[in-house]
Amino acid sequence: MTDETAREAERASGGHGDGGGGRPDEQGRRGRRGWRAAAEAALYGPGGFYRRPEGPAGHFRTSVHASPLFARAVARLLCRVDEVLGRPDALDFVDMGAGRGELVAGVLAALPADVAARARGYAVERADRPPGLDPRITWLPEPPAAVTGLLFANEWLDNVPVDVAEVDPAGVPRLVLVAEDGTERLGEPVTGADADWLARWWPLRAEEGLRAEIGLPRDLAWASAVGRLVRGLAVAVDYAHTRDTRPPFGTLTGFREGRETAPVPDGSCDITAHVALDACAAAGAPDAGSTGQSPQGTPRTSPDSPPTSPARTSPDRARMPSSEARTLPGEAHTSQNTTSAPPNTPPAPSTPQNTARTPHDAAREPHDTARTLSPARLLTQRAALRALDITGARPPLALASTDPAAYVRALASAGEAGELTAPGGLGDFGWLVQPVGVPHPLAAEPPAAP
To answer: 229-238 and 173-178 as β-strands: parallel, antiparallel, unpaired?
Structure first.
């Protein structure tokens, strides 16, 4: 997230940089504060979870870890964006929350030579640049000021920290305050922009114990990212829910070494929550007249919109999008291809960042080009990847007789594609797709299942 967005998020939450739990000097290191501030420190502070030497891939995997097919599919999408842009001299690919840069490296490696020659890869990440990364990749703490191409946020928004609200015995939503050991108590009532966000996107009944994650910082983060796009496509991929079926007790959870665990903000585990992608879509395209939103502000979705609030898997199983596909690298099929990407490590909404840019980036400041936003679409990863020719279809059995080695390779690829598109698994991830100044580069309707 940019510094400007951080300030917007700060103002939107009533100026509570500590998550609404009181001044930092009153709390102390082990005092209680809002989940947003606690998760920010636990994930990205000194010694934080995402700053560990082993990186996120040492603890879990996502779609990019499941198969190099994912990076190839994103490269195919970038080629489609290139076509609708008219093959510009410079084609940007921006990987938001790039982890160790595996996705952007994989995408660049998968591009045809004529596209690769014009492509400029950016990894947006708070951690330091890893050694040995492809020198073509520019490492930045925030997205370039002006992007023409594809901005891709794979599991970035789920790690933008958010506050949690819980209904008290009187039926009043209050901020949940948490100590470093994970113990909680209720704080002040939710007010201001946070209360407005809950009323619009996650209304809570006056029933004690109901909970919600206040997604306003994610909306602001996404709007800021889309605002950098001059022409092209912005895509956010995450496990998601929508307004009609929000989970009654929220989705905040922790992960450590491939297993689901209690979310404890001490730096020992990942802290994550499902994303209200419909709210992000509306924030990224605020003009309902040009974005295809309904009168209530909910963006239009495809017929294959992502399922909402799916059931969680057991803690010792692979965490699928119902609770995110994050597993130990050895627990399930893991490609040895090093171009798959780790989970995303986003800038936190309330923490200033180094805004220095590379000379190339500095030369590409925003300009006054008119931006036209087409309607945003929400669809499942299954539908999106099938539109990009990743179907999971088995190879014809006759190939086993004519070319056994090719059959085995094709069968392995089909298995990887099947995992990426599986119902109840990675295929249920939500894709938020926002074109800017171009036709929609994905199919108008998702193709039927094979």
So the answer is: unpaired
- What are 207-236's pLDDT values in tens digits? 999 999 999 999 999 999 999 999 999 999
Percent helix / strand / coil, the chain, rounded to 5: 30, 20, 50
Q: Is 363 exposed, middle or buried (0-12, 13-18, 19+ CB in 10 A)?
A: exposed
CA pair distance 34, 175, nearest whole angstrom:
7
Q: What percent of the chain has pLDDT over 70?
A: 63
Nearest C-alpha neighbor of 200 from the set 152, 151, 149, 243: 243
The Cα-based distances of 392 to 395, 417, 441 in angstroms read 9, 4, 21
**Residue among 84, 90, 222 nearest 153 (CA):** 222
Structure-token pair, residue 151: 């901005």
Closest to 369 measured CA to CA, from 228, 226, 230: 230
Quote the pTM value.
0.74
Other beta carbons within 10 Å of 243: 16
Is 305:378 a contact under the CB 8 Å cutoff? yes
Strands 240-241 and 275-276: parallel
Give the Cα separation of 417 and 382 in Å (integer). 10
Task: Using alpha carbons, select from 213, 280, 248 the residue that is nearest to residue 39.
Answer: 213
Exposure string (b/e) for 309-338, b if CB count within 10 Å is 16 or more? bbebbeeeebbbbbbbbbbeeebeebbebe
Region for 105 from its dihedrals, namely left if φ exceeds 0, alpha if ψ lies in -120 to 50, beta otherwise: alpha
First and final C-alpha spacing in the chain: 39
- Sequence-distant contacts of 383-387: CB under 8 A, at least 24 apart: 383/302, 383/304, 383/431, 383/446, 384/431, 384/433, 384/442, 384/446, 385/70, 385/73, 385/417, 385/420, 385/421, 385/427, 386/421, 386/446, 386/447, 386/449, 387/442, 387/443, 387/446, 387/447
Placement of tokens 């790039």 in the chain: 98
Q: What is the pLDDT of residues 284-315, one digit of tens each?
A: 876 533 333 332 334 434 434 454 433 333 32
Average pLDDT, integer, range 416-436 = 80
Check if the beta carbon of residue 327 is closer than 8 Å to that of residue 318: yes
Distance CA 168, CA 272 (A): 23
d(C-alpha 415, C-alpha 392), whole Å: 6
CA atoms of 230 and 363, how far apart (whole Å): 15
